[in-house]
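Subject: Thioredoxin reductase

B.,
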Amino acid sequence: MLDLAIIGGGPAGLSAGLYATRGGLKNVIMFDKGMPGGQITSSSELENYPGVAQVQNGMDFMTPWIEQSQRFGLKHEMALVERVIKNDDKTFSVILEGNKEVKAKTVIVCTGAVPKKVGCKGEDEFFGRGVSTCATCDGFFYKNKEVVVVGGGDTALEEALYLANICSKVYLVHRRDAFRAAPVTVEKVKKNQKIELVLNGVVDEIKGDKSGVTDVIVKFNDGKTRDIKVPGIFTFVGLNVNNDVLKQTDGSYLCDISKNNEVIVDLKMKTSIEGLFAAGDIRIDAPRQVVCAASDGAIAGLGAISYIEMLH
Ligand code: FAD
Ligand code: NAP
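Prediction pasted inline below.
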């Protein structure tokens, strides 16, 4: 029986593992379907982690996290977790691919989230080279330059406002002429002189060259097209939270989930199920930043220690 099973080895999972093992838990395994590090390992530049002044790529940035947590006894098992179940005796079963069952006294779920794709030509080819899903991360690279933002929800409009503070102009491309974002945010966007609304159109293609993105081709509902010449495009068309591991065989979720499919937690990262914690991008109101995921993981790791002490 494990003291603690951590599902997901991104910043939240690694930080949870570090705090739990350094805090005295002996038998802790962090399951990740791949190598630990999480989504930030796909980033070419990270420059907003406090205290790390030198710009690094995500892979180099995460490597010491893995070494540091393993030094205190955290074990990594490369395995896809299919499901987490709570048993009648209060223990948890972690079901791995191939139906292997691992029992644990407590579980921290840190499986993250993935931005949805627009689905246009060039999106994958230029991802990280002009196509971004994170304004806080990459907006600064477009200081005083023009960018496109795609989407009509709260995220797209809030990020368009954020980018308008940095960039010389923001083209907000949305497939309808009505926004689903909060009316107050829509008003702010409409009043912002640096934001041009490009409505009733979808991004048909992202073009570029060796330097990265050069053009965004918008196709309007009436069939016309427009070529917007920009070095950057930010897509905010919704997120898929990786909450599959919490889905039970009857289709219900093990713990309470928000209407956006995020795990509902309190300030101690406790879910609605005793002994089950969630941390990082998977939780409600996550700012989707490495520093925040790491903080969540530390809180959950300490919470797991307290929970196990309470069991004894
Ligand atoms: P993740 O990092 O998503 O880690 C989740 C882990 O869970 C993954 O390793 C995954 O393999 C594993 N997993 C998922 N499902 C399963 C399963 N069923 N079984 C086993 N393992 C599973 N943030 C910043 O602060 N600054 C930046 O500059 C920045 N740039 C970014 C650039 C890019 C391109 C991207 C994509 C994100 C960026 N972010 C940035 C956001 C940051 O990466 C995330 O907020 C952070 O990684 C979230 O950490 P997490 O541990 O919650 O989840
Ligand atoms: P969202 O509300 O699902 O909005 C996604 C937007 O992208 C929609 O406008 C949608 O268009 C558009 N879209 C989807 N697929 C597209 C495609 N392939 N091509 C072009 N456009 C596409 O996602 P979100 O903005 O990330 O917000 C997620 C949730 O978090 C929401 O509930 C939101 O309210 C919440 N949130 C709240 C705040 C806040 O309260 N301050 C901030 C951020 C997020 P349609 O409108 O036509 O469907």
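Helices lie at 11-22, 58-71, 135-138, 154-164, 183-191, 290-311.

T.
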